[in-house]
Each structure stands twice: as structure tokens, then as C-alpha cells.
Amino acid sequence: MAESEGRVVGFTTIAPERGRARVSLIAVDPALIRGTMAPRVSHALADAIMHWAEERKLGIHAVTQGRNVRTQRFIQRYGPHVHGISLYFHKWYR
Fold this sequence. Notes:
Strand content: 25-35%
Number of strands: 4
């Protein structure tokens, strides 16, 4: 979790799963996205993820939607690279 002036400005969820650190969620306060603080928050979260995984000697596994380019760039900027792409189709019943 990243805080600034007593409020949460970003967080991530991470857990060990089959020998890897699974990153399920990364979030930064939308009010900060275009400001100068967003890169610092993102960098702090990425450092925390890498440190957590490194301490446990785990690789990193992060999954996001194909259209979520911002998160894909975030993930790749800090080390992990695309290992595979999967497509899932959902049928919605009424």
C-alpha cells in the first residue's frame, strides 16, 4: 500500500501461487494518474512487488486484460516480460 499525507494513493495485491508471486491487482488513485506523483506511486508499488517476490525467491506472474495497455506497460517497465497470451470468451445468459 502506498500512502501520502495520511491517505491511501495506491495498492497492490500479491500472493504466492505455484512457485510464483501472483499479482492480482495494482491500483493508483485516479486523481493522480496524470500528475507528477503517479510515477512515484507506481515505482514504489513495483519496488514492493519485486522485493516481496525476491525475498521469497519467486518469479512474478501478473495477468491483465488485453485492452489494459497501461497495466501491461507498467508490468513490463519493471522487469517481467510477456510469456503468453490467452483469449477467453464469455457468454452471458439472460
